[in-house]
Write a structure and sequence with these properties.
It is built from 32 helices and no strands. By secondary structure, the chain is mainly α. The protein has a domain of about 120 residues. Helix 8 runs parallel beside helix 10. The two termini are about 40 Å apart. InterPro entries: ARM-like (IPR011989), ARM-type_fold (IPR016024), Importin-beta_N (IPR001494), XPO2_central (IPR013713). One of its GO terms (cellular component) is nuclear envelope.
C-alpha cells in the first residue's frame, strides 16, 4: 500500500462512517511487503498531523506486539499474518531514530514496540541495537539523550526479572554503557533544568531495573560504586527549585525534581536492604555487604537525615521521597555502625516525623467526608501500604522499638503523656493510639507492658466509643483489633469490649467505623475464649450488619470476617442461612453489574 492510501485509511479509522471500510483496507494490506515499513514512515513524518501519526503508531504497535514473534507458532500451523523479513529489517534499522525524534505521545507507543522487538530479537538477530545505543549515548546532541535512554531502559526491562545466568547479554551491554551513563550524569548534575533532570531520572530508572533483583558484581568496583554513591547523595541533597512550590501540592510529586529524588532513594534503599546489609544477604553478596556498610551506609544516612529534618521543619517533601527515606533509615537500625550514627536522632524522628505521619490528617478528613467508601478502600489497600509514608513510619517505629530497648520505653512515655493530657488534640490522641496499636505485638510479649494493656484499654480506648468524632471511634475499634490477644483479668472488661464493638457495628452511622468494628469483633471472638458465647444471642443482627456492610463496601477483608464468623457459629447461623445466601447472591450480582 502506498503512503497516500495508507494515510487515507488511517484518517478513515477516525471517522465513524468510514471506519469499517478503512479497517478492512488496513487488515488486507498488513501482510504485504513494505506495509509495516510505510506505517513507521507515516508515524515518523513531521508533515502529517498528530492524530494520523497516532493512529499509525497504534496500528504499528498492535502489529508488532501480535506478530513479531515468528518462532512461536506450532509446527503444524503456518505463521498467521506474519511481518515480512524486509520490513523487520527496516523497523530494526529505523525504530531507534523514530523514538529519538518523536513527540511524547508517539514515543510512548514506540517504546512498547522496541520492548517486544528486543524480547524476541536480542541478542540473536539484533546485536546492532547495542552499537546504536552506544552511538547516541556518546553523541553531543543532547536532543537525542532522553529517547536513547528510553531504548536502553527497554533493553534492561527485558532482563529485569531473569535469573543471573540468563542476564549475560545484558551484562555484556552494560559493561559498555555503565561508564557512559555515569559520565553523562556527572555532566548533567550542575544543570537543574526540567529537561536535564528528566534525563537524570531516566538514568536512575535504568539502574534500578538493572539492580532490583540481581546486582551484577562484575559491573561494580570500589571506584565506580563511590562515584555512583556520590551522584545519588548529591541528587537527594540538592534543593528543589523554589518555583515548584507554586504548583498544587497534589501535583508536586509528578515534577521531575521530586521524581528524580524518588528514584535516587529507591536505588539507595534497595542497595542497602538487598545487597548492603551483612547477615541479611545471600552468600554471593557477603563481601559487597561488608564494603557497603563500612564505607557508604553512614554517609548516605547523613544525607537522608537531612530529608527528615526538612519534613520536621514543615518543608514540603514528596510522599514517596519520604517513604523511601524512612525505608533506608529503618534498614540502618539493626546494624551497630549505622545505629551509632542514628541513635542521637531516633527520638526526634519518632516524635517529629513518625508521630505526625500516624495522626489523622486534613486529607483523611476530607476523604472521609467526601467519599467514605474511597476512604475505606484506601485504608485497606495493600498496594497503598506499599507506597505509603505512614506504613514506612509504622515499620520504622516497630523495628526501633523491637531492636533497641531504650526506644520502646521513651516512645510509650511520649504516647502516655498525650493520652493522659485532657487538653490533647483528638488527632494527637489518634496518633498516639495508632503508635501503641502498631507496637501491640511487642507490648504483649513484655511483662512490664503486658499487664498494663487492659488498664490502657479501659481508661483510654473504651471511652472513645462514645466520642462524637467518627475517626476516634474507628481508632478505638482498630486498637481493640490489634490488642485482641490481651489476657483480660476482668470478664467485665472483655464484655465491655465486645458490647462496644457490637454496638458500633450495628448502630454507628459512619461506614468506616462499622468496617473497623466488624474486623475488631471477629478477631476478639476468634482470640478470646469467653467472647464466643457472649455474642451468641446477638448473632442474627451481627451477621445481618456484616452482610449489609459487605454489600455496601465490597471489601475483601470483610468477606474473610463473614467466613470466619460462619465457622465460629455454624450452628447459630443455620436458621438464617437462606437469608444470608440471598444477601450474598445480591452482593455477587451487584459486583458483576458494577464491574471491576
Amino acid at each position: 500500500m502506498d503512503p497516500e492510501h495508507l494515510v487515507e485509511a488511517l484518517r478513515g479509522t477516525m471517522d465513524p462512517i468510514l471506519r469499517e471500510a478503512a479497517e478492512r483496507q488496513l487488515n488486507e494490506g498488513h501482510t504485504q511487503v513494505n506495509f509495516v515499513s510505510t506505517l513507521l514512515r507515516v508515524t515518523m513524518s513531521d508533515q502529517l498531523d498528530l492524530p494520523v501519526r497516532q493512529a499509525g503508531v497504534i496500528y504499528l504497535k498492535n502489529m508488532i506486539t501480535q506478530h513479531w514473534s515468528d518462532g512461536e507458532v506450532s509446527a503444524t500451523e503456518p505463521p498467521v499474518n506474519n511481518i515480512p523479513d524486509e520490513d523487520r529489517q527496516f523497523i530494526r534499522d529505523s525504530i531507534v531514530e523514530a523514538i529519538i525524534h518523536s513527540p511524547e505521545r508517539i514515543r510512548v507507543q514506540l517504546t512498547t514496540c522496541i520492548h517486544h522487538m528486543i524480547k524476541h530479537d536480542y541478542p540473536g538477530k539484533w546485536t546492532a541495537i547495542v552499537d546504536k545505543i552506544g552511538f547516541y549515548l556518546q553523541s553531543d546532541n543532547s536532543a537525542g539523550w532522553l529517547g536513547i535512554l528510553l531504548c536502553l531502559y527497554q533493553l534492561v526491562k527485558n532482563y529485569e526479572y531473569k535469573k543471573p545466568e540468563e542476564r549475560q547479554p545484558l551484562v555484556a551491554a552494560m559493561h559498555i554503557f555503565m561508564p557512559m551513563l555515569k559520565d553523562r550524569f556527572i555532566q548533567l548534575l550542575p544543570d537543574h533544568s526540567s529537561d536535564s533532570v528528566l534525563i537524570q531520572k531516566q538514568i536512575f530508572k535504568i539502574l534500578y531495573a538493572l539492580f532490583q533483583y540481581n546486582l551484577p558484581l562484575e559491573l561494580i568496583n570500589r571506584q565506580n560504586l563511590t562515584e555512583w554513591m556520590e551522584i545519588l547523595k548529591a541528587v537527594v541533597d540538592r534543593d528543589v527549585p523554589p518555583e515548584t512550590m507554586q504548583v498544587d501540592e497534589d501535583e508536586r510529586p509528578e515534577l521531575p525534581w521530586w521524581k528524580c529524588k524518588k528514584w535516587a532513594l529507591h536505588i539507595l534503599a534497595r542497595l542497602f536492604e538487598r545487597y548492603g546489609s551483612p547477615g541479611n544477604t545471600t552468600k554471593e553478596y557477603g563481601e559487597f555487604a561488608e564494603l557497603f556498610l563500612k564505607e557508604y551506609a553512614v554517609p548516605a544516612q547523613q544525607v537522608l537525615l537531612k530529608v527528615l529534618y526538612q519534613y520536621k521543619e514543615k518543608q514540603y517533601v514528596a510522599p514517596r521521597v519520604l517513604q523511601q527515606t524512612l525505608n533506608y533509615i529503618n534498614q540502618g537500625i539493626a546494624h551497630a555502625l549505622t545505629w551509632k550514627n542514628l541513635k542521637p536522632h531516633i527520638q526526634g524522628i519518632i516524635q517529629d516525623v513518625v508521630f505526625p505521619l500516624m495522626c489523622y490528617t486534613d486529607s483523611d478528613e476530607e476523604l472521609w467526608q467526601e467519599d467514605p467508601y474511597e476512604y475505606i478502600r484506601m485504608k485497606f489497600d495493600v498496594f497503598e501500604d506499599f507506597i505509603s509514608p505512614t506504613t514506612a513510619a509504622q515499620t520504622l517505629l516497630f523495628t526501633a522499638c523491637n531492636k533497641r530497648k531504650e526506644v520502646l520505653q521513651k516512645t510509650m512515655g511520649y504516647c502516655y503523656q498525650i493520652l493522659t493530657d485532657p487538653a490533647s488534640d483528638p488527632r494527637k490522641k489518634d496518633g498516639a493510639l495508632h503508635m501503641i496499636g502498631s507496637l501491640a505485638e511487642i507490648l504483649l510479649k513484655k511483662k512490664i507492658y503486658k499487664d498494663q494493656m487492659e488498664f490502657m484499654l479501659q481508661n483510654h480506648v473504651f471511652p472513645l466509643f462514645r466520642n462524637e468524632l467518627g475517626y476516634m471511634r474507628a481508632r478505638a475499634c482498630w486498637v481493640l483489633h490489634y490488642f485482641c490477644e490481651v489476657k483480660f483479668k476482668s470478664d467485665q472488661n472483655l464484655q465491655t469490649a465486645l458490647e462496644l464493638t457490637r454496638l458500633c457495628l450495628i448502630n454507628d452511622n459512619e461506614m468506616p467505623v462499622k468496617v473497623e468494628a466488624a474486623i475488631a469483633l471477629q478477631v476478639l471472638i476468634s482470640n478470646q475464649e469467653k467472647a464466643k458465647e457472649y455474642i451468641v444471642p446477638f448473632i442474627r443482627p451481627v451477621m445481618q450488619a456484616l452482610l449489609h456492610i459487605v454489600r455496601e463496601t465490597e471489601n475483601d477483608d470483610l468477606t474473610n470476617v463473614i467466613q470466619k464468623m460462619i465457622c465460629e457459629y455454624s450452628e447459630e447461623v443455620t436458621p438464617i442461612a437462606v437469608e444470608m445466601t440471598q444477601h450474598l447472591a445480591m452482593t455477587f450480582n451487584q459486583v458483576i453489574q458494577t464491574g471491576p
